[in-house]
Structures are given as structure tokens and as C-alpha cells.
Amino acid sequence: MHEELEQRQRLTWIHQFTLFAAVILPTISITVEATTHICAENFFDPIPSMWHLMLVVFVPLAQLQVWFAIRRGATERLTLAGFANAVSLGVSIFYSIVYIPLLPLAALALPVGLGLLPLAPFLSLLAGLVMRRQLKKLASRTPQKNFTLRRAGLLTGLGVVTAVIGLIEVPASLTRYGLRMAVSPSPNTRADGIRFLRSYGSRDFLLRSCYRQTGWATDLTGYLLAMGNPVTPTQAREIYYRVTGETFDTSAPPDRINGHLVPQDEFDFD
To answer: Does the pLDDT of residue 59 top 80, yes or no?
Structure first.
């Protein structure tokens, strides 16, 4: 009994790695981006809305709870830990896909330490998989089978993340799709694009498109649509007028452009 307690209290290299990769590094990465907007200014905005911020903040908080459950050998909270781990894996997978284009730059910046920040989603994903294996090992000591630690439980957690991200990203993706239709060389397609935007587009995102933005889209569909010829702010302003019947500068500018809060008194609008 004493030896088992002593072994549990000992911090192994696996515990150290999972704590760093699943909790500490994501926390640092989120804090740096939220305060400096370095990625938003140069590449893309990974947290363009409060919903995205809540999503990424959930990961280190949830993984910390999972880490403590493993360290304490708490078998009574395996269901909650398993679900939190599955959701964290889903968020990490999504951001790992989004950050793939930054991998070469991350490799170059590794000697100065900054390269670890773009690697945060990948390391968080790896640490999450390691901790899921540890949770399964912990669950093997109990006679009951835990649904959240089985494959079906993992798929359920990933499905929940997919649904949440879809709800967050759909307005932007639909608006990007409508914008691409509205700048088509075909007059019929352009007309269809305007009608599509009136029915399904997001006026807020359409307004954001009227201002200069750096980088690519955070939503995967939008990223694919923007890979060809992205819609310019000048084109977006013309489309905004055709969709709403108003010029873009008659509306208050968006609160955030490229991750920065925009003071409303910096713009003159009627």
C-alpha cells in the first residue's frame, strides 16, 4: 500500500510531458495570441470570436482535470474525465488541421522557443492520446465498463465538437461561399450569389470582409475557398451594397479586425 502511494506521488516523465503539452503549453499559446495577436496579424486569426476563445480555453482546463484524475487514480470520475478528454481531442484535431501550414515556420523558430507555440495543438493532441490510454488503464481496475473511454464514447465526443465548431463556423463559411459566387465571371452566378447572401449570409461577416484582413480563414471551408482568388475588400464593399442596399461605411465597423479590438471613434461612419 505504501509503495503504491509512493509510486503515485512520484512525477514520472510521462506525467511531466502530459502536464506541459496538454496544460502549460496551450495556456501559454492562448495567452500570447490573446494579448499580442501575433498569429492574427501575420497569418490568420485562430480566435476570431468569443466562442472560439471559450473553445480553446476549455482544452487546458479540461486536460488539467484529466491529469489530476490520473495522478490521483480517481476511478469514481472516469466518465467525466473520459468525456472531457474526448472533447479536448476533438478541439486539438481541429486546430492541428488549421495550423498545418505553419509547421515549416514552427520548425525554423524552434531554436528560439517561439516554434513551440504553433505546435501547441499537435502536442496537446499527442498528450491527450497518451492520457486517454492512461485513463483506460485506470478503468481496467474497475469492474464496470466506461462508455466515454470506449471507441463509441470517443466518437460521441468528437461528434459534439464537430457540431459545436460547425455552428460557430457555418455563418462565415456560407458568407464566403456567397461572396465567391458574387464575384463570378458569369452574370447568372453573380446574381445567384447576391440572392444566396441575402438568404443565408452573415451581415456581420460580410461587413468584416469590407475591411482589409491579413492571413487566411480559420474555418476550413473558408480556407479552401480563399486559396484561389480571395474576394478583395473593394469587391466586398460593392457586394455589401448590392445585398443590403447600403454602403459599408454607413454601419459601425466590426469590433474586431485581424484579432484586434477596433475603437469605434477611429472610423467616421454616417
So the answer is: yes
